[in-house]
TrEMBL record:
Gene3D superfamilies: Growth arrest and DNA-damage-inducible proteins-interacting protein 1. Keywords: Cell cycle, Coiled coil, Mitochondrion, Nucleus, Ribonucleoprotein, Ribosomal protein. Belongs to the mitochondrion-specific ribosomal protein mL64 family. Pfam families: CR6_interact. Residues 151-196 form a coiled coil. It is found in: Mitochondrion; Nucleus. InterPro entries: Ribosomal_mL64, Ribosomal_mL64_sf. Residues 253-275 are annotated as: Disordered. It comes from the Eukaryota. The lineage of its organism: Eukaryota, Metazoa, Ecdysozoa, Arthropoda, Hexapoda. Acts as a negative regulator of G1 to S cell cycle phase progression by inhibiting cyclin-dependent kinases. Inhibitory effects are additive with GADD45 proteins but also occur in the absence of GADD45 proteins. Acts as a repressor of the orphan nuclear receptor NR4A1 by inhibiting AB domain-mediated transcriptional activity. May be involved in the hormone-mediated regulation of NR4A1 transcriptional activity. May play a role in mitochondrial protein synthesis. This is Large ribosomal subunit protein mL64. GO terms for cellular component: mitochondrion; nucleus; ribonucleoprotein complex; ribosome.
Amino acid sequence: MSFLAKIFRPKPGSLSCYRQHGPGVQHRCESSKPEVKDQVVMVTEIAEEFDDNKEDQEARIEKIRNKSRLSEAHRNMVNGKLPYPESKAYWHDSVQYKRRMFARYGVEQSQVYPGIAWPDKEDLDANKEYEQVLTPLSIEEMVSIEKTKILEEEQKLKERYDTIVDKLKTNDNVIVQFHNKQKKKTEDQLASKKQKDKLFEEIRQHFGFNIDPRDEKFQEMIEIKKKEELKKRRIEKKKLREEKLINMALEIEKQQSDIKETKGGTDDTAKEKKE
């Protein structure tokens, strides 16, 4: 009995009363007045309305307790329960969905028959066709191909190892060549810098005062000096070429004279033998 029903319970003599007819026996008697019956109906309606309000209040309290603001399905998933106890979409009745729910939540929560997890004849045929398309080769052929790949990789590694060993043998020579190259590069840079400084100094001496390198006269003088330097180099190269040609001619002449001498000596020995 609800709280309001207890409060508005009819008093003896007005709504209902109990009379004793012997020990342990009670008979309920009600008044036949119409206003009393209306009052009973009103009290009953108030009690039912209070019960409904209590249920609504409990629902509101439960909603306030849900601080996550997740939907019912997501809250069930977080708590390890089935997201949808009843089917709410057409895919909830599909075999794939039921298999997934069975695998995730078990028999009791998913309420799915375990036999659905095994494939039927259509699934087996589809899987066979898929495997034939995916792997048309037999197991023996696949094993043979994998062995060949492994042997090829081992051969590549061996060749790379041999190449590294060979390069390590000549590593000292490579290091020496590298240092010589760096040394030559540094020397060339220093020579170029000295030549540039010398050129600037000649230009300053020509003008008789320090001049800004960005000045037009300075730039014109640099061009003139560069042309003179280029002409000088050409003359030096020409001299070196002429000297080289002269040396080659002298060497050829010397070789020819040596050949003549050797030939004359052989002729003399031949004549002596004849005599």
